[in-house]
What we know:
Blueprint: H1 2-20, H2 22-29, H3 36-45, H4 49-82, H5 94-125
Helix pairs in contact: 4-5
Amino acid sequence: MLRRTLLAFAVLIVTLTVVLHPAVASTVGDKPEYTSAQIRKMAREAHTVQQFTVLADYYQTRRRMYQRKAAEEMHLWAERNAMITPLSEKWPRPVDSARNLYDYYEHMADESAALVEHYNKLADAAPWQ
């Protein structure tokens, strides 16, 4: 009986966390709906404004996703940087992994922004069909 009550309570907590937490709700809408193979195929075959616009929208969504992840890692990096005790830490330090992830997400966001700009320029130059 106690086990069932605890399980029901845990399910309730998880459900409320997912429903009420805005960051979790925003991640559902920000996930790209295409696979990488589909995007590569679309990029090869794109020749109209609509196709280039779909690609630009996909990379804009990826850019927002990576910027959000970078912000989360920046926060984690700041927290871990405040608790440094150099004598007792093992390498690589947790602060280093947070910094590396932040750098990676920033790089990917910049790369996605460049691709958005590229596909927007192609969409401007493409014939309307």
